[in-house]
Write a structure and sequence with these properties.
Blueprint: E1 3-8, H1 14-27, H2 39-47, E2 55-61, E3 64-65, E4 68-69, E5 80-81, H3 92-95, E6 104-112, E7 122-129, H4 138-152, E8 157-162, H5 167-175, E9 179-190, E10 193-203
């Protein structure tokens, strides 16, 4: 059986975070960014973040004992979560390949929405999942943990921007309690084409 756990990211996760983020940039379904990142840039990004804006990762971990899964050790108050049965097992080798030795299959973060003091209770969020792990429940687990962390760090609201051309992501956000606020029409360009972005929010006090 395959399991994975959520934990706070460390500097050693920079390469995996970079690789997964670059997949999101290349796939054109999650961000208007077009410039690929480097592990050094992501390492600096992690280092410069405040404790109030953590980064978390979903790490592949297989703990099979007598036909059952032994709970993974928790770190930073982040507990193990387990995806449904299915094709995840067949991807475990890929998740632990040479370019991803730690088995990190996804990451997420609470980000500064706006530097102005009046917006200190609002956090922007990011969620990126390894291509072969999308649709397996990892994203939902990360969103749930971001909601929990948002409350712990005193945020009143989480916000995000999504692409209309990413129906899977939109459905996931809606199921996780985010509602659509509006649409920025032709907000940016990707490959010479104008792209709309959908703004969504989740009030944490509700």
């Amino acid at each position: 059986m395959t399991s994975y756990r959520l934990r706070l990211a460390t500097a050693s996760d920079a390469e995996a975070i970079c690789r997964i983020y670059n997949q999101g940039i290349e796939d054109r379904v999650a961000t208007l960014e077009t410039e690929l990142r480097t592990p050094d840039e992501r390492r600096q990004w992690l280092q410069n973040r405040s404790a109030r804006h953590p980064v978390i990762v979903a790490e592949f971990a297989e703990f099979v004992v007598a036909g059952s899964v032994r709970p993974a050790r928790t770190e930073g108050g982040l507990s193990q979560v387990r995806p449904g049965s299915g094709s995840a097992d067949s991807r475990s080798a890929d998740s632990r390949s040479a370019d991803n030795p730690l088995g990190v299959v996804a990451w997420a973060s609470l980000n500064v929405f706006n530097a102005r003091e009046c917006y200190r209770f609002v956090a922007d969020i990011s969620v990126y999942v390894e291509r072969s792990w999308r649709g397996q429940g990892v994203g939902r687990a990360l969103l749930e943990k971001l909601t929990e962390l948002g409350r712990q760090h005193g945020f009143h609201k989480l916000v995000l921007s999504a692409f209309p051309g990413n129906p899977g992501g939109m459905a996931l956000y809606a199921k996780s309690g985010f509602r659509t606020v509006g649409i920025y029409h032709e907000q940016g360009q990707l490959d010479g084409k104008w792209v709309d972005t959908i703004v969504m929010e989740k009030l944490l006090s509700v």
